[in-house]
Amino acid sequence: MTDRMTLQKCILGSVSTNCYFGKNNESGEMFIVDPADYADRIIAKVSEMQGKPVAVLLTHGHFDHILAANEICRYYRIPIYAHHLEQDMLLDPSVNMSAYSFEQCSIKVDKPLEDLQMIEVAGFSIQVLHTPGHTKGSCCYYLEDESILLSGDTLFYGSVGRTDFPGGSSEEIRMSLHRLVDNLPEDTVVYPGHDITTTIGYEKRYNPFV
């Protein structure tokens, strides 16, 4: 990560989801990744970091990554980005599983994304990597200039995301994992949707799913 960026997180929600805040230290603009729950805590974190949110990036549509998304986007008047194949899941509480939590959630994607698309957010160049397996429209966000991968529930420290939910596929998630570890630089730092950070190099050597 360069001096131009500050990346921090809050751990939120019933299954300890990592919500990330990427701030451009030059402009103060910020993107928020996977606003899992507790919008008040997210707003407090933004205030603490003195950031100006410009976008919400969703790695996928499961309830534990999205429950505060609508409230955050209304509060800051900012768009939601997600892979286009995740739109149906995000709209349907029974599919994104928020119907079985304390709060049903239906989200419309403002900026549908394509595989390998480059987007400019908060002054950062971000590449969208479609990584199906956990869900059909799971994606990772790769910031090459910062040597950062925001991997959602595709890649964890020494593991991968579950594949037993609707739209999951163990074959696809292995292919997605290989796409990451075979093509990204080994010094890329991986920020997953749960648990601790890792690196592409470590996962290439030690992840049992490789």
Provide structural commentary.
This protein is of the alpha/beta class. It is 23% helix and 31% strand. The protein is built from six helices and 14 strands. It has helices spanning 39-49, 69-76, 87-91, 93-96, 170-183, 200-206; strands spanning 5-12, 17-24, 29-33, 52-57, 80-83, 111-113, 118-121, 124-130, 139-143, 148-152, 155-156, 159-160, 189-192, 198-199. Strands 1-2-3-4-5-6 form a six-stranded mixed sheet, covered by helices on one side. A six-stranded mixed sheet has the order 7-8-9-10-13-14. A two-stranded antiparallel ribbon has the order 11-12. Helix 5 (170-183) packs across helix 6 (200-206). It starts with a strand and ends with a helix. The mean pLDDT is 96.
Proportion of residues in helical segments? 10-25%
Computed over alpha carbons, the radius of gyration is 16 Å
Provide mean pLDDT, rounded.
96
Shape: globular
Kindly estimate the percentage of residues that lie in beta strands according to DSSP. 25-35%
Order of helices and strands: EEEHEHEHHEEEEEEEHEEH
Largest sheet, strands/sense/barrel? 6 strands, mixed
Count of DSSP E strands? 14
The N- to C-terminal Cα distance equals 26 Å
Kindly report the spatial arrangement of strands forming the biggest sheet.
1-2-3-4-5-6
SS content category: alpha/beta
| SS field, number of helical segments | 6
Extract low-pLDDT stretches: none
